[in-house]
Structure prediction request, 197 residues.
Amino acid sequence: MKKHKENSELTDLELLALYRDTRNKEHVGVLYKRYSHLVFGLCMKYFKDEDQAYDAVTNIFTKLFDDLLKHKVDFFKSWLYTYSKNHCLMVLRSAKTALRKSLDYSSDMKVIMENSEEEHHKANKREEEYALLEKALGDLSDEQRLCVELFYLKDKSYAQIVEVTGYDLNKVKSYIQNGKRNLKIMLEQSNGQQGQT
Prediction:
């Protein structure tokens, strides 16, 4: 009589096929044990923060339960790498979008973004805005940049920022307020220069 393989002895593709047939999440659990450390390493590269990286790994493998039923996967390891990378980029982009919204762009910028004639033009504009935002963040003082990133991109409270940085509360508030004002000025200047070219 042929002995059944243990879950841990099955190949990635065998586990995927079994999961599709049975919807038994244990099969994805084996893939989690095999690859979660690699996904964690990738997430650390993007977030540079252990808590955020752990959260991302959990979210990625939770989404896999549905997405593995929708996608045909031939090489799981390379597919998972791309899937995880896209997840990280999406999280970072939504964080940057939230920061951009909080900067109260001038109504002119909103009009330009909303009235772009073609979709690809809108996408190009958004890419330019991400690049401008990253450059502007890099031009802030170290203290302002750190506090702004922690507050807007990593959702840390004032108290958490005080704990992480060692700055006192008034300094943290001042760095965030001044950093936000400086970012707005730099972005408006960049947009003005682009308008002239």
Notes: The longest helix spans residues 169-196. The chain has two domains: 7-94, 103-196. The radius of gyration is 22 Å.
